């Protein structure tokens, strides 16, 4: 049970806490872990690849993807002393949609997610990503407060 665990990370404190819980679980269960980051899509303001703004947008996207990959690699290094199999996945899109699709397509058995993330506003219990993922996932979801 829970041999494949997906942990979505936005770099927030709560998502890092979700990673610690995942590592502790994965060690006990001998589970494989995937660290996932979604670069949120830019608003469809400039779509053409031919004009100057299109090129600027393209380089912003590349930079954001690179940044996301580096962040995940740092998290991998931070848990390299643990005896667990880890890989990473970075993609651009709507965070909740991408997390749900990845979990579904690759048959993850558990998603461990923070209750809040970078956009935390005091007074709300859950962020929009954790809210949507917990309501629509086809596997169990562990929400870390
Ligand atoms: N872009 C992302 N990529 C990967 N995981 C994410 C991303 N955004 C959020 N998450 C995951 O979802 C958890 C909850 O974050 P969420 O975005 O729902 O809360 P929030 O930022 O406080 O609120 P909101 O984004 O609705 O303003 C995070 O701790 C993280 O585990
Ligand atoms: Mg957020």
UniProtKB/TrEMBL annotation:
Residues 1-145 form the UspA domain. Keywords: Cytoplasm. The keyword Lyase does not apply. Pfam families: Usp (PF00582). One of its GO terms (cellular component) is cytoplasm. It is found in: Cytoplasm. Its main location: cytoplasm. PANTHER family: STRESS RESPONSE PROTEIN NHAX, UNIVERSAL STRESS PROTEIN UP12. Belongs to the universal stress protein A family. This is Universal stress protein. It comes from Desulforamulus reducens (strain ATCC BAA-1160 / DSM 100696 / MI-1).
């Amino acid at each position: 049970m829970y041999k494949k665990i997906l942990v979505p990370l936005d770099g927030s404190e709560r998502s890092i806490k979700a990673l610690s819980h995942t590592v502790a679980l994965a060690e006990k269960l001998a589970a494989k872990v995937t660290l996932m980051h979604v670069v949120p899509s830019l608003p469809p303001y400039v779509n053409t690849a031919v004009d100057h703004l299109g090129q600027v947008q393209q380089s912003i996207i590349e930079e954001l993807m690179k940044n996301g990959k580096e962040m995940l690699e740092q998290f991998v290094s931070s848990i390299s002393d643990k005896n667990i199999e880890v890989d990473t996945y970075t993609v651009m899109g709507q965070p909740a949609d991408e997390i749900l699709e990845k979990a579904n397509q690759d048959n993850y058995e558990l998603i461990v997610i923070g209750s809040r993330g970078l956009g935390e506003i005091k007074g709300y219990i859950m962020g929009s990503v954790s809210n949507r993922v917990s309501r629509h996932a086809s596997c169990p979801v562990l929400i870390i407060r």
